[in-house]
Amino acid sequence: MKLVRTKELLEIGVSHNAEIKKKVFIERGEIPQLMMFASATFKPGQEVELHKHDTMFEVFKIIYGKAKFIVNNETIILSAGDCITIEPGEVHAQSNPFKEDVHWNYFGIATD
Length: 112
Fold this sequence. Notes:
- By secondary structure, the chain is mostly beta strands.
- The chain has strands at about 10-15, 15-25, 35-40, 45-50, 55-65, 65-70, 75-80, 85, 90-95, 100-110.
- It has a 6-stranded antiparallel β-sheet with strand order 1-2-3-10-5-8, with no helix packed on it. The protein has a 4-stranded antiparallel β-sheet with strand order 4-9-6-7, with no helix packed on it.
């Protein structure tokens, strides 16, 4: 068993923008194929540039706020309760162009 208390986790920068902070509940290597399970908060104006993962699915569930995702040149606005799965090889970006914070939980699953 592993118990994680959110309030005890350190905030660290996300890999694509160190100013955006996340808390990692499960790290790579703890569960086979799971790359990480984390939560992140994007403040208004924060963004992650276009990128892709060739060997990983990413799943994002919006907890509160709204976010703009771009996936394969399609712009999608997500809000609380929405969940999106980004497949390996899909070019994507995330941003918060809105006036309030957006918070989501997310995880990655390796395909290799």
